[in-house]
Amino acid sequence: MLTDKFGRQINYLRLAIVDRCNLRCTYCMPEEGLTWIKQNELMTDEEMVRLCSVFTSLGIDKIRITGGEPFVRKNSIELIEKISQLEGLTDISLTTNGLLTEPYIPQLKKCGIRSVNLSLDTLDEERFFTITRRKGFNKVMKTLDSLLRHGIRVKINAVVMEKQNIEDIIPLVLLTRELPVDVRFIEEMPFNGNKDIETSLSWNHQKIYTYIREHFPDLIKTEDPKSSTSYHYKVPGFTGEVGIIAAYTRSFCGDCNRIRITPAGLLRNCLYEGAGINLKDELRSGKTDEELKNIIISSIQHKPKDGWEAEKQTMNASQIHQSMATIGG
């Protein structure tokens, strides 16, 4: 098992397989998009599978496929299937915006995807267009319906943004009345890829909780799984649950069990880290699996105590505006 210098066991890898996305969400990137990673700088399918195999041999037993939007990558379902077959992997999951996902749901189910995080910041079609700068609300709702019909657990991720989707908080909570979904409200983070857009951080996890509690006074706290990023709650009698993720105030860092790989092969020990070891370059230079393991083990020893330390060590004023698409969510 990989263990950092703080004694935290690392068993969870978030693999971003592409940086591109078919939405332009205001909290993630500029309207015109970003300067995307060049094709030859992206890892190939074979490189990703090999790296994942090295990680599972080191004790990583959970992998989440992220992006950008994973299904923007050509033949992404075949890549997911290959990763799902790795020895030692007990949990493979996916984060998606749902626009291209529905046709692949039977295959996702077949290759062992039991949980999908679905990005959905509003239940209003017009606000969806305003936030994402794209049409596609109905496609996302069809994906949600299909995931539930196939018995795949769904976590709906909603970024809370002042003057944009506050009126959606209660309708999203009400989804959990009848549906077996977890709705997770996320503090907005200053990772929008655009220096010209101010991020409002007034809606922190405490304010979100207070707002929900005002509408549902009997809201109860439930147990938070180990290394969870979310505070868990439930309205008595409702089928699903509610979560609040303190993404900016970062109160979940203490028992972090995650590492990240960007589409270009950077190993990042923390979401808020601005640098990383380039494992793709190590692969292409001819490193053996054992040499890669040693590089990874050494890197894990530099995992920061928390997100504030990571940001202080590695980020400058411009990097704070990097896009979530380049970080891997």
Automatic annotation (TrEMBL):
Its cofactor is [4Fe-4S] cluster. Keywords: 4Fe-4S, GTP-binding, Iron, Iron-sulfur, Lyase, Metal-binding, Molybdenum cofactor biosynthesis, Nucleotide-binding, S-adenosyl-L-methionine. PROSITE patterns: MOAA_NIFB_PQQE, RADICAL_SAM. It holds the Pfam family Radical_SAM. SMART domains: Elp3. Transmembrane segments: none annotated. It catalyses: GTP + AH2 + S-adenosyl-L-methionine = (8S)-3',8-cyclo-7,8-dihydroguanosine 5'-triphosphate + 5'-deoxyadenosine + L-methionine + A + H(+). Residues 5-226 form the Radical SAM core domain. Its EC number is 4.1.99.22. It is an enzyme of class 4 (lyase). InterPro entries: Aldolase_TIM, Elp3/MiaA/NifB-like_rSAM, MoaA, MoaA-like, MoaA_NifB_PqqE_Fe-S-bd_CS, MoaA_twitch, MoCo_biosynth_MoaA/MoaC, rSAM. It comes from the Bacteria. This is GTP 3',8-cyclase.
